[in-house]
Amino acid sequence: MDARSILSRLRDRRALSPDEIAWFAKGVASGEVSDAQAGAFTMGVLLNGMSEEGRVALTLAMRDSGHRLSWDLPGPVVDKHSTGGIGDCVSLLLAPMLAACGVYNPMISGRGLGHTGGTLDKLEAIPGVSTEVSEETFHAMVGRIGCAIVAASADMAPADKRLYAVRDVTSTVESLDLITASILSKKLAAGLETLILDVKVGTGAFMGSMEEAEALAKSLVSTANGAGCATMALITDMDQPLAPALGNAVEVAVCLEILTGATGVEYARLTDLTVTLGAELLALAGASDEASATAQLKDSLASGRAAEIFGQMAADLGGPVTLLETWRKDLPVAPVQVPVPAQASGVVVSIDGRALGEAVVHLGGGRLVQSDKIDPSVGLTEARGLGDTVEQGDALAVVHAATSDAAQAAERAVRAAYRLGASADVPDLIRKRVA
């Protein structure tokens, strides 16, 4: 085989065989396939599409282009993946909650992408924490405490790393087939048995319409199941922040509030979605029926067991061993905190979630270029949700910034992101289930 022959078949809209796809993925990983050829491949896939069989073959080929993890544990090996949103810190809660229910969650996560935050950046807001660990440490943590949230090693799905960079500069990021293979190749390389997907839709998500979200959810579910990993998806609302905070340390603070017993109404959406995703996952893995799983997950919070596991995980990653007792003084705090007063009274009828996410990025809570260093302390807190009634002068959110100038810019962006009116239609948190 050679790249030119494979590309000519793709150009002529002839289906590639699994062997041809596997050869090409290995060539991308090894460098035998040039950047020009990799770019031609991504453009060909974007324009011509792939069959379900082709997507499965590409996912497996990218998974097998590098090192794969394997597990020998006395319980199901499970994971969750979100397509990204604002105020979405479910992973920080769900991993220890699942571990408390007796399953194992080796969660290989990512960093912030665009206007959405990254789980690794959030976890590393805890002083001392590093998510770059050896495979031996990763295995030991999962075996001992039931979960670990870490970064992917350099030799895991290397074909995806290179194709992702090529897609970014060739305007082929939007290919549903390539998105599917990219997400799943990394997850399946972690040695999972069962996976649940949280596909976000709305103003704060990458998928703005239900049609787009449903197409992605169906592609991910069918491909993962075809690759041998039991998978289902929930399409969930992202027309408003999931948590009342957006940023790194401020989202960790919300999670620690919940883990240590807070049950305020402002946390209800985040807690409800976490429990729902966990219950679906435990049922799919055969660890429990959905009703029992829901009770077990809620008890993991009420009993403090999930909090204990989170504290152990953070300590194993280099964080304070006293985190559960001292997190309020441990987490970094921005020097400038400014409320954003509403200029009129009314009900929150719409929120531009992308604009809120971009405001956090420009505060320093995300990356405008890959080399940017994140300020973990900045962000937004006390963010109002859809349907909330506000009086003139009430805070729409509180800006946490490094400087007064940055705070003023964020204040303008936040005020522009909120629209007030007489009444609001609040969408359901769970839009659709895809199995």
Description:
The mean pLDDT is 95. Helix 4 packs across helix 9. Strand 4, helix 10 and strand 5 form a beta-alpha-beta unit. The protein contains 17 helices and 13 strands. The strands form 4 sheets. The protein has a 4-stranded mixed sheet, with helices on both faces.
For the structure shown, list the relevant keywords.
15% strand; 17 helices; alpha/beta; 435 residues; 4-stranded antiparallel beta sheet; globular
The low-confidence parts are none
Backbone structural class: alpha/beta
**Main sheet characteristics:** 4 strands, mixed
Task: Give the overall average pLDDT.
Answer: 95
User: What's the number of extended β-strand segments?
Assistant: 13
What is the overall silhouette? globular
**What oligomeric state do the depicted chains represent?**
single chain
Strand arrangement within the widest β-sheet reads 1-4-5-13
Based on CA atoms alone, the radius of gyration comes out at 22 Å
Note the gap between the termini.
37 Å
Strand content: 15-25%
Write the element-wise H/E pattern from the N-terminal end onward: HHHHEHEHHEHHEHEEHHHHHEEHEEEHEE
Helix content: 40-55%
Q: In DSSP terms, counting alpha (H) and pi (I) runs of 4 or more, how many helices?
A: 17
